[in-house]
TrEMBL record:
Gene3D superfamilies: Jelly Rolls. This is (S)-ureidoglycine aminohydrolase cupin domain-containing protein. Pfam families: Cupin_3. Signal peptide: none annotated. It comes from Miscanthus lutarioriparius. It comes from the Eukaryota. Residues 24-96 form the (S)-ureidoglycine aminohydrolase cupin domain.
Length: 101
């Protein structure tokens, strides 16, 4: 039996948001992070919003059959409390922002 996950925890992907949206969020002022292809288990202790400049990722949500794909040009939100495994297919370069609330 799969472990239960808190309700409402899912990854949101906004495909190719308009430049005005990115400017409104201040994405270019966010820190940058990158990684090579590989598998990375992650747990989000704070909500994370990221904008992928390069790369392609398949994220499998722990305790769920949900698998979300996202890549260059996508704005992605991971809610606080979510655990997932990133299968980085193409090396990632991204801007990111943690929401401490």
């Amino acid at each position: 039996m799969e472990a239960a996950r808190p309700p409402g925890l899912s990854i949101t992907v906004e495909k190719n948001p308009p430049e005005a949206r990115l400017l409104q969020l201040g994405v270019k002022s966010w820190p940058k992070w990158g990684c090579p292809p590989g598998r990375f288990p992650l747990k989000f202790d704070a909500a994370l919003t990221c904008y992928l400049v390069k790369g392609r990722v398949r994220a499998a949500v722990k305790g769920s059959r949900e698998c979300v794909e996202f890549g260059a040009g996508d704005l992605v939100v991971f809610p606080k409390g979510l655990s997932c495994t990133w299968d980085v297919v193409v090396g990632v370069d991204k801007h990111y922002n943690f929401d401490p609330s």
